[in-house]
Design goal:
Blueprint lengths: L5 E2 L4 E6 L7 E4 L5 E2 L3 E6 L2 E10 L14 E2 L7 H14 L3 H8 L11 E7 L9 H12 L7 H8 L3 H10 L2 E7 L18 H15 L4 E7 L5 H14 L3 E5 L7 H11 L4 E3 L5 H13 L4 E4 L11 E7 L16 H12 L2 E6 L4 H8 L4 E5 L10 E6 L13 H13 L2 E5 L8 E4 L15 E4 L4 E4 L5 E3 L13 E4 L3 H11 L5 E4 L7 H12 L5 E4 L12 E6 L13 H13 L10 E6 L5 H8 L2 H15 L5 E10 L2 H13 L2 H4 L4 E13 L2 E11 L4 H9 L9 E6 L6
Parallel strand pairs: 10-15, 10-16, 11-13, 11-14, 12-13, 14-15, 17-27, 18-25, 18-26, 24-25, 26-27
Antiparallel strand pairs: 1-4, 2-3, 2-6, 5-6, 5-7, 8-9, 19-23, 20-21, 21-22, 28-30, 28-31, 29-30
Adenosine-5'-diphosphate (ADP) binds next to helix 7.
Amino acid sequence: MDDPGYFDEGDLVAVLTAQPLDRLLDYKAPEGGCFQGAFVEVPLGPRKVLGVVWGPGRGDYDRSKIRSVIRVLDVAPMRAEMQSFLGRAADYTLTPMSAMLRLATRAPGLGEPPSMRKIYRLGDTTPDRMTKARTRVLEALRDYGGLAFTLKELAEMAGVTPSVVKGLAKQGAVREEDSPRDLPFPHLDPDLPGKVLTEDQQVGADALRAAIRSGRYGTTLLKGVTGSGKTEVYLEAVAEALRMGRQALVLLPEIALTAEFLTRVEARFGARPAEWHSGATMTERRRIWRMVGQGEAQLVVGARSALFLPFRNLGLIIVDEEHDTSYKQEDGVLYNARDMAVLRAAICGARVVLASATPSLESWANAEAGKYDRLELTARFGAAVLPEMRAIDMRTEKMPAASWISPSLRQTVTDRLGKGEQSLLFINRRGYAPVTLCRACGQQIGCDHCDARMVEHRFLKRLMCHQCGETKPIPEICPSCKAEDRLAPVGPGIERLAEEAEATFPDAKIAVLSSDMFGSARALKAKIEEIAEGDADIVIGTQLVAKGHNFPNLTLVGVIDADLGLQGSDLRAAERTFQLMRQVAGRAGRAERPGTALLQSFQPEHPVIRAILSGDETGFWKAEAAERQAAGVPPFGRMAGIVLSGTDAGQVFDLGNAMARNDMAIRQIGAQVFGPAPAPIARIRGRHRVRLLVKAPKGAALQEAISRWIAPLRLKGDLRLSVDVDPQSFY
Ligand code: ADP
Ligand code: ZN
């Protein structure tokens, strides 16, 4: 156990605040003293701000000017391991500590006393005057013995307006009390019977249980095809952690955090876990944050930022769908939750389980190198078998103009409709058409603020920029040559595909699933659940359907453009296509009926398409690994992206050139700087963007070198510099 230091009243303490200052500030410990790690309120100029006592003060500041900590907040102090995690994560991602602290305190009102709410129970006086409504309230309370209710509950139960209850409370016939809102989470029972595991699953569960009992850090790559029972296996690992009195965290890509998953947890442990995601209310966030810190939330299921919750005794982190790109936060603090999970676990002696049907090459290579343990589930559970995968060679299909469903695919869908089974048509492009072209002058309509084309969204009746979100009405006149009625959509997006499907299969019930067509994540999830229950014959979806949903009646997946991902210059293009296609195909045939996946491709002989079809995963990974090794790129070399931006293109380039010339710090570690070059998206929201890329050998001290490189820079005007260590996307 760590023994947090204690500071007596008046001792100098160094406080970290969430304010954008690049140093700790000295204060005097308040009356009654404080522990290291205490959350405090301190004066900063005219304001009061939240801070954490980080350690002893440095004392290099005029002592007479040092102010006192105002008060210690009534929450569990930050643990030494959390301080260390934030520090190391900051060093790794080259992020200021103030920003790390903001990530770790993403719950409002931490400084306030425990939030209270009013509850009502039977009082001991009789009201001056009885009415029917008043009688119903008192009867309802008598019926429930001594129980208390919220105003809303009680009024609803009695069928009266809240003012009736308030009136009774004023007279003392009903007692109004304050009750704390931040209640502990219900107890999860790891010893409820789980499912009877298959032999494969049992081996995996045993191995994980033993690893968790060791109480030491380690990472396991749990690989298994979709439907093989990875979730069942890792729930047993969760059970073991709970038995040992340790907390567990299950990270899911945001969209995979469904009611279905929570119901499974409830079935296994008898109660629901804490749920941390962007849709959670402020009150809920605060409750989770506090309860996690007090050890009164045993299991948190959450999106990536749950990693920064103040766990008291974290014994297990599951990263489900570990290859998913949404684990990389792409704005603000640029961190990869998968990598940070490993870091956090290493610091607190926890086990990490990375689960995926199609692991990232990073994790695959770590398992090959023996850094991670490996567990594999090879068969789907029960009768479910893997889908048969075939390519449709688009060069030999007769395609009418402006159509994307080939005759072969159409035939297969028709066959499924006849059998009452579901089909999924997959296209990874939102909107109606990716390009709007003027047939008179050839101009493509672009965004005014970004170097990107506007995408037509018929559903919204607007053109939209996918970079900055700017929208405008679909024009009738070409903005460039003023020709009338000559603008035409080019290429398919999900909405256009839906239109074609409606015309091709007029009797089928068609559901379209694209993240931008639903007002909220909740509405989208509700729709997904409807579909899973069979409420659609044909599902048309973008990438989001690839993520961990169960569609038991789905037996056909048609990929409209399997070549789409292969064209990018991204070093992970092949890996991404491979993962995405296999994930999507995995949607087919989850229950008793076997599935088929058909990939429409103009280059079915492409090695990546061939690897997807043959299911030769090891072959694919080995070939991909060999190529990256030869090129010295991740995971066999290291990279960092530097993006410079500003409204004045000349200034941005000047800065980039100056950095490229003064690259001594980078060359000293045997690394190289490439660029400056215009970023692939050279302008976003009116800001010009220039990119430098640093490539370093695997063992090099990359972050340290970058820090030394950028430290002397003074950014003029509105110039900005952001560093992305281990970049995942190159935009
Ligand atoms: P994965 O996480 O690998 O996609 P799941 O754990 O979701 O797989 O399992 C797929 C389906 O099979 C789920 O509905 C799950 O409840 C069921 N299943 C898996 N293993 C078992 C088992 N041993 N007993 C009963 N049902 C199982
Ligand atoms: Zn734009």
